[in-house]
């Protein structure tokens, strides 16, 4: 690549895309790639979805920004729809997943402060988690590679192994404000948290006056076949951070909360300049129009099950390349035997875009609108990628 004026904090491919059509991305020179990354679980309805395009164009012709000093009718409507479809009573709109998690953390701490317990500011999180890139959310995630070089870790976060109830109970004390968890660790390698564990967390929180925070930034808005992944367990949170899919590609996020918890963020305690702007609210409502339409989520479940079964067959056929398939709905992962980055590159060479994750996993997260025919094409290209790696192994052994 030629010299760029951009920061060098991304290891970019050499691909540059001109436009997108559904699950396809098209380069400037006309090559078509099957997008099984969805911009890291963002383009939930694919590229250039006509309903989203129209919503954005209509709003752009009217009003872009007024600030939260005034009423936002489309925001009121989107908040009401999210509340009616979830555990929540109140919604705070922000611009990203990290901001949504920051809002949830601040809300939990302020809730206990308002209740006369300012010492309760610790958040228990889980090893392998990823909650964002701000100083607060890298401390919440606790991964050394994201913390290194940025000074002392922000205080008040206690990590324990995911699934270890005894370790969790050992760190809970009078300082504990909340427990925060991803129902499926996305960046951590499509590692599903067992529903029994989530139910146990809910009971621990109830028994100890602790708030339960779900990070559904990656799992939410239909990705696992339910509107939100917590629905599989029935263990409702007190606070939930969402982003990615709710904007369908437009930058937005939200913190959802029960009324008594949301009340902690009174006027002046928290804010955002761009959060809840008219453009984002128009697109968010358009996304819900599609995702909440009759049969849409059931269709995601069916397609996800079919895709997972096909990927399991792929794993069986290529044991020197792939070890197992993980996930649910259209949030799937392939645990690799070879370096995950090598498989991502081979898939790209075969015309398919995927996303690497922790634990040597490749994430397969296509738009929720992907058809069965497109799933078949995806499996065919993933097969080509595995075969290409095996061929290189043979050539290496022969050489």
Describe this entry's structure for a reader:
It is a single chain. This protein is α/β, with parallel strands linked by helices. Helices cover 39% and strands 18% of the residues. It is built from 13 helices and 17 strands. The strands form four sheets. Strands 4-12-11-10-7-5-6 form a seven-stranded mixed beta sheet, sandwiched between helices. A four-stranded mixed beta sheet has the order 1-2-3-15. α12 packs across α13. It is globular.
Question: How large a portion of the residues is in β-strands, by DSSP E?
Answer: 15-25%
Largest sheet: 7 strands, mixed
Strand order, largest beta sheet: 4-12-11-10-7-5-6
Broad shape: globular
Number of helices: 13
Helix content class: 25-40%
Rg, Cα atoms, Å:
21 Å
Strand count: 17
Rounded mean pLDDT is: 97
Helices and strands: which structural class?
A: alpha/beta
- List the uncertain runs: none
Ends distance:
31 Å
State the order of secondary-structure elements, H for helix, E for strand.
EEEHHHEHEHHEHEEEHEEEHHHEEHEEEH
For the structure shown, list the relevant keywords.
399 residues, alpha/beta, 7-stranded mixed beta sheet, 4-stranded mixed beta sheet, 13 helices
Question: How would you summarize this macromolecular structure in one to three sentences?
Answer:
Helices cover 39% and strands 18% of the residues.
Write the layout of secondary structure elements.
Elements: E1 17-21, E2 24-27, E3 32-35, H1 38-41, H2 50-60, H3 73-85, E4 90-94, H4 97-114, E5 122-126, H5 135-141, H6 144-147, E6 157-160, H7 165-171, E7 176-181, E8 184-185, E9 191-192, H8 195-208, E10 211-215, E11 239-242, E12 253-257, H9 259-262, H10 278-291, H11 296-317, E13 322-328, E14 331-336, H12 340-349, E15 352-353, E16 355-357, E17 361-364, H13 372-398
Parallel strand pairs: 3-15, 5-6, 5-7, 7-10, 10-11
Antiparallel strand pairs: 1-2, 2-3, 4-12, 8-9, 11-12, 13-14, 14-17, 16-17
Helix pairs in contact: 2-10, 3-10, 11-13, 12-13
């Amino acid at each position: 690549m030629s010299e760029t004026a951009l920061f060098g904090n991304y290891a970019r491919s050499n691909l540059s895309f001109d436009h997108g059509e559904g699950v396809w991305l098209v380069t400037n020179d006309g090559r078509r790639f099957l997008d099984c990354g969805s911009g890291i679980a963002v383009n939930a309805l694919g590229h250039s979805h006509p309903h989203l395009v129209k919503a954005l164009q209509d709003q752009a012709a009217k009003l872009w920004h007024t600030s939260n000093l005034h009423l936002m009718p489309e925001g009121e409507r989107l908040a009401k729809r999210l509340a009616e479809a979830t555990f929540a009573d109140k919604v705070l709109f922000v611009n990203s997943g990290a901001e949504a998690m920051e809002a949830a953390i601040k809300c939990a701490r302020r809730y206990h402060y308002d209740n006369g317990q300012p010492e309760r500011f610790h958040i228990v999180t889980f090893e392998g988690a990823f909650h964002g890139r701000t100083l607060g959310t890298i401390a919440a995630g606790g991964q050394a590679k994201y913390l290194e070089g940025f000074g002392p870790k922000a205080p008040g976060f206690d990590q324990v192994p995911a699934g270890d109830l005894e370790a969790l109970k050992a760190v809970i004390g009078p300082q504990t404000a909340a427990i925060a968890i991803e129902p499926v660790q996305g960046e951590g390698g499509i590692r599903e948290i067992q529903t029994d564990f989530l139910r146990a967390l809910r009971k621990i929180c109830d028994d100890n006056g602790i708030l339960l925070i779900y990070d559904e930034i990656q799992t939410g808005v239909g990705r696992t076949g339910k509107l939100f992944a917590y629905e599989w367990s029935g263990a409702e949170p007190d606070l939930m951070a969402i982003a990615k899919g709710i904007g369908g590609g437009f930058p937005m996020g939200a913190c959802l909360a029960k009324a008594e918890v949301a009340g902690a963020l009174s006027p002046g305690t928290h804010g955002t300049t761009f959060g809840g702007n008219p453009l984002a609210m128009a697109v968010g409502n358009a996304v819900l129009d599609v995702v909440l339409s009759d049969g849409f989520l059931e269709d995601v479940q069916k397609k996800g099950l079919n895709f997972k079964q096909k990927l399991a067959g792929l794993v069986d056929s290529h044991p020197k390349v792939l070890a197992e398939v993980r996930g649910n709905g259209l949030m799937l992962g392939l645990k690799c035997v070879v370096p995950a980055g090598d498989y991502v590159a081979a898939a790209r060479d075969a015309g398919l875009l995927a996303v690497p994750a922790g634990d040597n996993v490749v994430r397969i997260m296509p738009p929720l609108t992907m058809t069965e025919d497109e799933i078949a094409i995806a499996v065919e290209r993933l097969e080509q990628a595995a075969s290409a790696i095996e061929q290189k192994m043979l050539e290496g052994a022969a050489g």
